[in-house]
Specification:
By secondary structure, the protein is an alpha+beta fold. It is built from 23 helices and 16 strands. α17 runs antiparallel to α19. The model has no long low-confidence stretch (mean pLDDT about 90).
């Protein structure tokens, strides 16, 4: 066993040392072919199977499956979930769907655009790529979206989503006008914030499909222009860029003039680039020269482009809106750099950039238990919601625990809808924007390989993440639940307010019919055992 353990350690080290070459030669071509197959399937669905007029008929088919489940003897019923494969989900976890009754929910259509009400009605499997491709040529976009094209509207709604427009409108859930949901007894309900199902309306966000099967939703849209005028502001000094983000987001002044889009990328504790975007038309020939197609395969990865302004100084450019909305798609923010360290090299981009990104679905599809354990132990991929009052502290804490940069900052409102009105608690009094019904929070995005792992030093992922989660609970923040969590059930209940959620589960027949939220989002692996193993292997 000693010889095998030593061989395994050397082999894993060889894979890590040569990961870029391995991914270039094997993973990227396979991922490209895999994605081509998915795109062909999606094209076939759009061209030959797209039938918005058959929506009601397809919903009735799903209802029939749920009622068949209800007709089974109670001892034979397994909790229901959708039949969508785990590998199509952007979650880092692998929920054990084989222990559930899998219900097909093949709903991929954009149903209706209502320009008068400024809403679009969609089925849950419509992707961000699909909806931006549909809306932007018509002069609109979703009020809240995500930078990854494969994310689905339904997944963002029942999970959590935010963007660089969220300092104006809040989370994705604030842009949901209504939900159409099939309950555990097969009944179809239409939930809005002010009808008889308003309790369900507020409990569905952050529920991750544990209250019912979503079959349609209405999403708010906003009018847009073809371009975004993006201003890059390099800032030295942690207090300086943190204060700037509080000022620009309106965290301290409800009358502040807000930009359309706002974000910051922190490249070290003392250096950041703040990005301020405004919708724009570009007609002047001189201004057209400043149009930058950031999504082109041969262009620098967006965060690397942003980093250049630390040396170049303050400047601006125009970005086509859809390219801005999907600006982080090619490099999956900056995760691809840990896979292909030379991926931003100009020659690589020119010759192989069109193969990027490696398809998240392919990476999950090919994940083995060993790979899952290794990536969990040697990477961090977390989005964390925190109040603006602790911005400096959170960056310091992230550096201490993970020591990896860049770090992403997206300001976001959290509204006070009253006590027990969803899984998010009302902001504390010191977190509120004066004179409003919301507090200004932000997404702290920490992605990549922790510093100790890069330096081949001892790293305990469980200790690091549990320390971060303790900090999050203490300051009144939240972990995004698409990523691995390390909390016990008691700690989970401390972070999230499940008062309304538990009432809704009983009232709308979800108990026994769908898995509980905690069971749906907890890692399928023993995180504590993997953490111990990681530490023990280093100590050998």
């Amino acid at each position: 066993m000693g010889a095998y353990s030593a061989f395994r350690k050397r082999f894993v080290q060889w894979l890590e040392d040569n990961r870029g070459f391995i991914i270039l030669v094997f993973v990227l071509p396979a991922s490209f072919l895999f994605d081509a197959g998915l795109q062909l399937r999606n094209w076939y669905r759009r061209v030959f199977l797209s039938a918005p007029e058959k929506h009601d008929e397809r919903v009735r088919d799903i209802q029939r499956r749920i009622r068949q489940w209800n007709d089974q003897p109670s001892q034979k019923r397994k909790p229901m979930c959708t039949s969508r494969p785990n590998w199509l989900s952007l979650s880092t976890t692998f929920f054990q769907k084989n222990q559930c009754e899998k219900i097909p929910v093949d709903l991929y259509n954009i149903l209706e655009l209502d320009e008068r009400r400024q809403v679009v009605r969609v089925e849950p499997m419509v992707s961000v790529g699909d909806i931006t491709r549909y809306l932007i040529p018509r002069g609109y976009t979703l009020a809240v979206t995500l930078e990854i094209a494969d994310a689905t509207c339904g997944g963002l709604g029942l999970g959590a989503g935010m963007t660089t427009y969220s300092h104006r409108v809040g989370f994705y859930q604030e842009a949901v006008e209504s939900w159409d949901v099939l309950l555990g007894d097969g009944s179809l309900v239409h939930a809005t914030k002010d009808n008889e199902y308003s309790d369900l309306y507020y409990a569905l966000p952050w529920s991750h499909g544990s209250l019912g099967l979503l079959v349609a939703m209405e999403l708010k849209i906003i009018p847009v222009k073809p371009y975004l005028k993006m201003e890059y502001i390099p800032v030295r000094g942690q207090k300086a860029y943190c204060d700037m983000m509080r000022d620009l987001s309106g965290a301290l002044d409800k009358a502040a003039k807000l930009p359309d889009y706002l974000e910051a990328t922190v490249f070290s504790k003392d250096e950041a680039v703040v990005m301020v975007g405004h919708f724009a038309d570009v007609t002047d020939p001189k201004e057209k020269a400043k149009i930058n197609h950031v999504a082109s395969w041969y262009k620098p990865w967006f965060y690397k482009h942003v980093e250049t302004f630390l040396k170049k100084g303050k400047d601006y450019e125009y970005i086509p809106l859809r390219e801005y909305l999907l600006r982080h798609n090619r490099a999956i923010f900056w995760v691809v750099e840990s896979m292909i360290p030379f991926g931003n090299n100009p020659i690589f981009r020119l010759l192989f950039g069109w193969l990027l990104p490696p398809k998240p679905a392919f990476l999950k599809f090919t994940t083995t238990p060993g790979v899952r354990a290794m990536t969990f132990a040697k990477q961090v991929f977390q989005d964390i919601v925190l109040p603006m009052t602790v911005l400096e502290k959170s960056i310091d804490r992230a550096e201490t625990l993970f020591d990896t940069y860049p770090i992403l900052i997206y300001p976001c409102r959290i509204y006070d809808h009253g006590p027990a009105m969803g899984q998010l608690r009302p902001p504390r009094s010191d977190q509120m924007c004066p004179g409003t019904n919301y507090g200004m929070f932000y997404d702290l995005g920490v992605y990549g390989v922790p510093g100790p792992v890069k330096r081949r030093e001892r790293y305990d992922p469980v200790h690091a993440m549990r320390s971060m989660e303790k900090f999050i609970r203490e300051v009144g923040g939240y972990s995004f639940l698409y990523a691995d969590i390390f909390m016990t059930r008691e700690e989970f209940d401390e972070m999230f307010d499940l008062t309304l959620y538990e009432k809704v589960r009983k009232k709308y027949h979800a108990e026994g019919a769908f898995p509980h939220l905690y069971d749906k989002v907890k890692p399928e692996v023993d995180v504590f055992a993997i953490g111990r193993q990681c530490a023990e292997e280093f100590d050998k």
